[in-house]
Amino acid sequence: MSDFKRNYSSCPMYYTMSAVEGKWKWIILWKIYEAGIIRYNKLWGELNPIAHKTLSAQLKELEASSLIHREQYNEVPPRVEYSLTEEGRTLIPILELMYQWGQEHMK
């Protein structure tokens, strides 16, 4: 284990940042929050130019962190929808503050 992980693995800030690290996770959470429930292709279209591989990996990580729920319907063609979990919804106040901060400080 690295010195960094040894020193910070029990730090709440490190845990939070690990759960939502990456270029796309915050905006993915925001888009899912805005939509309530969103299908994969709609989410991908709204996040263009994100690559399918990147979106898929980020969604899997968010699901593994219990922040989003993935619902797959075995239809033809297959349908997959994403929504925030109860735990994911606890990030809404942070998301709203980040959005508000951006509005106030964007030039």
Q: How does this structure look, described?
A:
By secondary structure, this protein is α+β, with helices and mostly antiparallel strands. The chain has one domain (24-105): Arc Repressor Mutant, subunit A (Orthogonal Bundle), CATH 1.10.10.10. Helices cover 59% and strands 14% of the residues. It has helices at 3-8, 12-19, 25-35, 40-46, 52-64, 86-89, 92-105; strands at 37-39, 68-73, 79-84. Strands 1-3-2 form a 3-stranded antiparallel β-sheet. A hairpin with a 5-residue loop joins β2 (68-73) and β3 (79-84). The chain is globular. The mean pLDDT is 93. It comes from Lacrimispora xylanisolvens. Keywords: DNA-binding, Transcription, Transcription regulation. InterPro entries: HTH_HxlR (IPR002577), WH-like_DNA-bd_sf (IPR036388), WH_DNA-bd_sf (IPR036390). GO terms for molecular function: DNA binding. This is HxlR family transcriptional regulator.
